[in-house]
Model the fold of this input.
Amino acid sequence: QVHLAESGGGLVQAGGSLRLSCAASGPIFGINLMGWYRQAQGKQRELVATITSDSSPNYADSVKGRFTISRDSAKNTVYLQMNSLKPEDTAVYYCNAGIKISPILRAVDYWGQGTQVTVSS
Done:
């Protein structure tokens, strides 16, 4: 069974940095789009950043210039480097990946369990 395992969340002061990692494991034939989403308490889940299979990134306006998404396709892993963190970045961050388990099947969306990021002022 495919599984996404996130790590790297925690508590940091405003202006600090954190690096999130998400590794996909299981019967993986290929991975298309990978990305990070976040959900703050009482709010809807929102896109943070995505990266295509050829490493083309896309960012939410709120994180442009502060966050960097990258991937290591050999390790089936996506990263999110978060710099200049603000209290409004506080949320549970979820990893997402479109994964094919067979060359003849469509990619299916998988989600990680989420990792808490808390930025204190």
Summary: The chain has a mean pLDDT of 97. The longest strand covers residues 30-39. The CA atoms of residues 38 and 96 lie 11 Å apart.
